[in-house]
Known about the structure:
The protein is of the alpha/beta class. It contains 17 helices and 22 strands. The chain has two domains: 3-243, Nucleotidyltransferase, domain 5 (2-Layer Sandwich), CATH 3.30.420.40; 254-430 and 462-495, Nucleotidyltransferase, domain 5 (2-Layer Sandwich), CATH 3.30.420.40.
Amino acid sequence: MENIIIAIDQGTTSSRTLVFSLTGETLFVAQEEFPQLYPKDGWVEHNPEDIWNSTLNTLKLAYEFIKENTYGITGLGITNQRETTILWDKLTGEPIYNAIVWQDRRTAKICEEIKLNYSDNELNSKTGLLIDPYFSSTKISWILDNVKGAREKAVKGELAFGTIDTFLIWRLTKGKSHYTDATNASRTNLFNIHNQTWDKDLLKLFKVPVNVLPTVKNSADNFGYIDFSILGESIPIFSAIGDQQAAAVGQNCFVKGDIKSTYGTGCFVILNTGEECVKSKNNLISTICYRLNGKVTYALEGSIFIAGAAVQWLRDGIKIIKTASDVEPLCGKHNTNRGVYLVPAFTGLGAPHWDPNARGALFGITRDTGREDIARAAIESTCYQTYDLIKAMSDDGIASNSMRVDGGMVENQWMVQFLSDILDIPIECPSSKETTALGAAYLVGLQAGIYKSLDDIKKHIRINRHYSPKMGNEERTKLLNGWVNAVKRVLSNYP
């Protein structure tokens, strides 16, 4: 009987369950989208039951495929949208409020108030992060203060907090496991990434009772077993890891200086810094890349809130395209961007600006500006934002000579070539389109003993497409100067 690995990839817009061979081949994919909720300007929520039901539905489809093909199951891994916050009743398992999504900016004022008495530097020295609505801590506090009776129940130990991995593990084990991994814990602003513990001072600062927090495990570990009643089989959960860190594992970024960029709803660049936790001088965050057998590998990370979401805006917002694939031919219609820039600060700007109050703008439009110009500007904006992150990493002392990319947007070959041009480095695209889920699967194999080491995993990577820069320095400089000027004009402190 051939063995396989199951991976749940719970994302911002959909839930997916995938089946992988032990060599990393994708055998099956089930996907189910769920609604995005926008109750107020800057607010982004999900119904936790939508997350659970979509995950369960895809898991059941994957299990049917496995049984039909008489595969043996090595184990299951989970990768997830990070920072997104859920609180639920420990007795009933019912959420007390919608999931507050990582994109949500409702706690901007809370963050500003905290900064009056506590500095980003103090926080950064413990968590590697900044005081920003992006992270889980203020989301937890907001729910506790805005749901009647929640704070009292939390203090009594009657509520549980989790990022999505924790919520799914709780549900899959029928409340037997309240766990997270070090990568997800490192995104809360409550976890000391140096001593690997929940920080008492930060819990007090953000008013989060310790009773609600999960136990923190390695990224490859025993997180419990799927309850028999769910699938008719008890399956071990052998990995949990945040989606961007999972992509770094799937891209085999195991050596200091290895770098990957994932283009989904947002864009996330992760640079492996090895055993050294590099403190950024350029508003990047230090984070945990993965923790294995108690040993931490660190990373520098830059987060872009709007990447693929800009394409969704073209399709669903201003309706100038019907499908995402319509964008690529539009991008190549003209030889230049004709001076049009989109700064997609729809929910503020992430790294390196960290301006929650910035808002999007379209610059340089004229009477003959058409949908092709706006579409191209949306795609270019993702590449310019990536440049900002790569430059910040270089200024922090770690430069990379190449980058691996993944995510839905990299199907757009025009975009990847422009990315290579604007970064002035080669770009590699792996054969597998499922590097995020694959990272979670690899960790399952590591925990199960299928792979003896990270070097064992490296044997399975396959590169499909290579891109080299073709743009001249003069053109590159001109385009980047236009971008810098556009960004300045959307910042909340612009004169």
